[in-house]
Amino acid sequence: MRTIPTSPPPYASAPSATSLLTSLLTEALTLLSSAAPRDGSRPSWTLQRKPRHYPNSTAPIHLSSGPHNGAHWVCRRSSHRDAAERETASWTEFEAAFKTEHTLHEQAFTPSVIGFERVAWWEEAVKDVSLELPHEQWKGVSLELLEIVHSLPKPLHPRSFPVLQGIAERVDMGVEGGEFVVVTVPVGVKWKLWAQAVPARYAAVERFRRVGPDVEWVMATASRAGGVLPGWVQDMSVPGVVAKDVDLYLKWEAAQRERRAEADMEESLESDGDGGAV
To answer: Among 143, 145, 187, 190, which is most exposed with the fewest C-beta within 10 angstroms?
Structure first.
C-alpha cells in the first residue's frame, strides 16, 4: 500500500496561502464527491451494512471505506437535528466548535489528543478571501501548520502528527443554507516538538452543512501511526474511533450548553441585583 500523500512544507516560496487553501479545498471536494455525495446518492465507497448508535446521539452514524490516492480511507456520515438540545446540536454550535479554534475544541472533547502546537498560521492572508472554484463560491477561514499529539494504549508511545489544516466556507448558499469544510493533510518536516512522540501521518476531510432541518456532519480520514504497529491492525480500529467521535462531541457540547446556561443565569441575577441597588 502506498503511503498517505504528504503536502510540501507551506513555508516554501512557491504557493501563496490562498492558492494552497484552494488546492486543499479542491482535493477535499473531489474526495467527498465519492465518499459522501451531496445529493444523498449511494457513495462509490463500500458501505457498512449496519449504522452505529451511541447514547449521546439520536442520529445513526453510517460508515464506509474506500481507496483514495493509494491509501485506505474511512468515512462516517450522520445527520443531526438542528437544535441546541441533548443528543444533538445546533448549526451555531457546530460552527463555534469546528469552524474556529478547531484543534483546541477537538482536544477538549477527544481524550486521545494530549496536546498540540500552532507552528505557523496565515489567517489574515486567507480570511474572507474568495477561492476560485468552478460553479461554487467559497471563501477562506484559516490556514495553520500544527503538530498534534495523540496518546496510544501503553506500552505504545504517543504519536506526533505534523499537519497543514485549512478551513473554508461556502458563501452562495442563501440565508437558510450553510456549509464549511475542514481539510487536514500531513506535511513533511524535519522538526519534532514532542520529543517522546513517534512521527506519524494523518489526513482528514470534514464537511458540515445545513440540510433542511438537519446538520449533516461528514468525516473521511486516513492515517498511519508509525512505529511497529501493522497497517492492517490500524485499519481495523479506525471505523470505531471515527464513529465514537460523534458521541464524544455531542456529550461535550451538552456539558458546554449547561455551563453557558448557568453563566447566563448568574449574569442575569447579578444584573437584577445591581438594578435594585439604591
So the answer is: 190
Given pLDDT bands bounded at 50, 70 and 90, which one contains residue 5? very low
Beta bridge partners of 234: none
Contact yes or no for 253/60 (Cβ under 8 A): no
CA distance 68 to 46: 13
Separation CA 78–CA 221 (nearest Å): 15
* pLDDT of 4 over the 70 cut: no
Nearest of 141, 137, 143 to residue 165 by alpha carbon: 143
Q: Which amino acid is at 79?
A: S
Q: By three-state DSSP, how is residue 153 classified?
A: coil
Higher per-residue confidence, 190 vs 97: 97
The b-or-e profile of 15-42 (16+ CB within 10 A means b, else e) is eebbebbbbbbbbbbebbebbbeeeeee
CATH superfamily of 17-273: START domain (3.30.530.20)
- Per-residue pLDDT of 38-86, as tens digits, reads 988 888 999 999 999 999 999 999 999 998 888 889 999 999 999 999 9
Q: How many CB atoms lie within 10 A of CB 63?
A: 22
The angle at the Cα of 219, spanning 213 to 41, to the nearest 5 degrees, equals: 60
Q: Cα separations (Å) of 14 from 144, 163, 165?
A: 17, 18, 18
12 in helix, strand or coil? coil
**Cβ contacts of 138 within 8 Å, gap of 6 or more:** 25, 130, 131, 168, 169, 170, 171
